[in-house]
C-alpha cells in the first residue's frame, strides 16, 4: 500500500471539503450519517430481497464503497492528527481480507460500528473491499478519478449551470473519465494532474 497514494487521497479530500467550506473541520459535519445512508444504498445494489431474483451489481457496489471512502477520509482528517499519523493508521488497519462468506453480514457489522461510535472503521471497510475482490489500486484509481472529475465540473461552470455533462461526441463525462484513467499510469505522483489535463483536452475538443 503506497504511502504517497494515501497522501494524495487525503490532500484531495481536504481540498474538496475546503472548496465546499473553508472551515469544514470546525463545522461538526455528521460524516458517519452519510456513511450509513450509503451502506443502505450499497445493500440495494448488492441485493437482499429474498422474494425476488437479484444478482449483486459489484460495479455499483464498488462505486458506493468509493463514496463511503470520501466520508471516511473526512473523519480521519477531522481530529487534527498529522498526515503522517493518518497515513500510518490507514496502512496498518486497511487489511483487505475477510473470513465472512456473506458480504451483507460484513456490511451490517460496518454500519453498526459506524452508528455505534460515529467513527470510520478501516478494518471493517477493508473486509467489504475483500468481499467484492476490490484492490487498494482500484480504490485509489476510482477515488482519484471521482475527485478530479468533481473539481473539473466545479471549475467549468457546474454551479452556474453552464457545464456540459455530455461532451463533443455525445458521451457523458463519466465515460470520458474511465477512458482517461485507463490511458494513464496511476502509480505516478502526477497522476491526478495528468488526469485533470486529459479531461481539459477532451472537454475542449
Automatic annotation (TrEMBL):
Gene3D superfamilies: Type II deoxyuridine triphosphatase. SUPFAM superfamilies: all-alpha NTP pyrophosphatases. CDD domains: NTP-PPase_dUTPase. InterPro entries: dUTPase/dCTP_pyrophosphatase. This is Dimeric dUTPase (All-alpha-NTP-PPase superfamily). It comes from Cellvibrio fibrivorans. The lineage of its organism: Bacteria, Pseudomonadati, Pseudomonadota, Gammaproteobacteria, Cellvibrionales.
